[in-house]
Amino acid sequence: MKRIPWPQTISPAAYSIQGGVVHSTTYDDPYFASAGAMNEKEYVYIKGNHLGRRFRESRKITILELGFGLGLNFLSTLDAHAATGGDCVLDYVAFEKHPFEKSDLRKCLRESIGAHARVDDVIAKLPPLLSGFHRVMIYPKVMLTLIYGDAAEYIKELEASVDVFFLDGFSPKKNRVMWTPRLFASFRRLAATGATFSTYSSASDVRRGMIHAGFDVGLPKGFGSKRNMLTGTFRGENDSKANGSIPADLTIVGGGIAGCSLALRAAELGMKVRIIESGQSAMGRGSSNPLPLVRPVISLDFGPRGQFSWYAYLSAMSFYRRLSLSQPIGWHESAGLQIPSSDVEWNKMREAVDILALQDDVLKCLDDDSDSFSKLNIKHSRALMIGQVGQLRQCQSFILRLLEGSSVEVLTGKTVSKLAMDSGRLGIRQDSSPFQVDGELVLCNPQDIKRLLPDTDLKLQSIRGQSTQVVGHPTSFDFPICGDGYIAQSEDGGVWSSGTFDVGCDSIECRDSDDLKNMARVNNVLKFDGKSPSLTARQAWAGIRYATHDRMPHAGRIRGGVHVLTGFGSRGFTWAPLTAEIVLSDILGLSCPVERSLKKRISPLRF
Ligand SMILES: Cc1cc2nc3c(=O)[nH]c(=O)nc-3n(C[C@H](O)[C@H](O)[C@H](O)COP(=O)(O)OP(=O)(O)OC[C@H]3O[C@@H](n4cnc5c(N)ncnc54)[C@H](O)[C@@H]3O)c2cc1C
Ligand SMILES: C[S@@+](CC[C@H](N)C(=O)[O-])C[C@H]1O[C@@H](n2cnc3c(N)ncnc32)[C@H](O)[C@@H]1O
């Protein structure tokens, strides 16, 4: 499959509001019927697909909407879902070529539907206007995957087992591309057995297209004064996960950030989860890192790795933000700086910022001309300002507390030494005793994974790194500063300077020579305004990064019920939440949060 170039320019929605009805000035068509926005959506889409009953009877429902627009269908679906207790997992996927800017969306919704209890929550969680896939967790059991781009182009990249199709892409006369037989034909691949669809349109072309795509189509009464609308049921049988066969149990080997983020998320989704960890507690080893950052790296890499890194960064920001709302996890957000090492790199960064075309509060270039630059107390004269960088301060104890408060069972001091298939059931050998695995198994243990999967070439490489807490600098600075490694203010004084880079080294003993390198970074970055610093190393931490040859992670199924989630290199805290979601979606039959082609690029079977 040919990869869709990324990023693509996204033109936001252009609109006018006339008598409370929002009109697209691009398509010259209204977003909803003038007879009542929410009433129309509820009649055509919620009742048209019997969603109330289906939410009560199903463990998961995947909805695919063509045209997210103002999110009215989504809001109506949230209302219907909540009215049934919200226990069914709601996996809502929507294409949108012209997303609204958040402020415009707020205004349009206020003028068209007035107050709605969930609007602020939904808008706050919407992604920036960056093309491609964005998985947003609205509530633990409700996820929204927004795909910013042309549905006709992106549909081939969607992997999902769709239970309900909402066709809402402006009138077929005004916007033919959202109603073509070719687009509908892809529903044959996506539709789950028994899938339904509805649309306010009763056009005969649409009816014929949906019949051709494999649906039995009916012509019930339309909304308000409209004579008819279309509904239908998929005639085919697709070999997707039937609701009853969704696995309920998950065993995870390795309790680092990969294992823990997977466990917490799986427990939220109602799975029975067990972590087996060889250390004395979870969040040891690589994940005992004293101050990891969650940040994007701005470069001209717009291939799969650059694309994946952006998705993962945005996803991690919302993951930790959400966790921190329920309990403190040492999460701290601020702006951050990325400093170029040369003119060439600076030019590349500027070009990347132009191509990404994100709002200034997400990403902007600062140089000598910027008023704000002089206040930054750094020796450099140009930098990128990243609007949101996350710091995880002492997150280990907080994540352990989250695990304790969850239903996840954590078995520590137990090493998994072998995987075996016994009469078709998966077993593991834990120390010397055999152990039957119920449900699915995910390996999140980079140290030892080669031994458990001798036939899979994961091409993992060890890269030692040391971080040092440096004290004695007289300058205060507000933001983490990244470039060659990073420095970030530490809560208990001084800064953490990270990290050194020793390819092929497995030692985690701290070294004085590495402290000196880390102190040099502080000296090279911060301005001391005539005061002479006397930098000293207060403490140090060393860990091993496990990186793959192509610097992409491993996330996916190896065989049967065995999955791998590892190989994060220097990005474990940033990449774990999205990759965990990818693995979990595969296990639970939910839509894939990234492009099919990208999923292949992180498959543990790719080498
Ligand atoms: C200097 C440095 C700076 C870094 N900075 C950042 C940063 O700013 N941002 C960021 O996102 N990332 C950063 N990282 C990377 C990040 O720390 C790692 O990618 C991440 O911790 C890896 O997590 P993990 O869960 O994959 O592995 P680990 O945390 O190593 O967890 C694996 C667990 O599996 C257990 N285990 C192994 N074998 C077995 C077995 N057979 N049976 C049972 N249990 C087993 C281990 O005991 C271990 O607890 C940095 C890394 C270094 C070294
Ligand atoms: C009628 S509005 C959708 C209303 C929306 N369902 C709601 O509930 O608010 C149609 C939407 O389809 C989007 N759209 C039009 N052509 C598209 C395309 N080719 N790909 C993706 N979205 C498209 C428009 O930008 C618009 O937001």
Characteristic key phrases:
Rossmann fold, FAD/NAD(P)-binding domain, D-Amino Acid Oxidase, Chain A, domain 2, 10-stranded mixed beta sheet, globular, binds flavin-adenine dinucleotide, binds S-adenosylmethionine
Give a verbal description of the structure.
- The protein has 607 residues and is α/β, with parallel strands linked by helices.
- Strand 6 (132-139) and strand 7 form a beta hairpin.
- The protein has 17 helices and 30 strands.
- The two termini are 18 Å apart.
- Helix 4 (102-113) packs antiparallel against helix 5 (119-125).
- The chain is globular.
- The model has no long low-confidence stretch (mean pLDDT 94).
- It has three domains: 15-234, Rossmann fold; 247-286 and 397-459 and 550-601, FAD/NAD(P)-binding domain (3-Layer(bba) Sandwich), CATH 3.50.50; 291-393 and 461-548, D-Amino Acid Oxidase, Chain A, domain 2, CATH 3.30.9.
- The structure holds flavin-adenine dinucleotide (FAD) and S-adenosylmethionine.
- Flavin-adenine dinucleotide binds next to helix 10, strand 13, strand 23, strand 28 and helix 16.
Helix fraction, binned, reads 25-40%
As for the CATH topology of the largest domain, it is Rossmann fold
Number of strands: 30
CATH class of the largest domain: Alpha Beta
How many domains comprise the coordinates? 3
CATH architecture term of the largest domain: 3-Layer(aba) Sandwich
Q: What is the fourth-level CATH superfamily of the largest domain?
A: Vaccinia Virus protein VP39
Bound molecules: flavin-adenine dinucleotide, S-adenosylmethionine
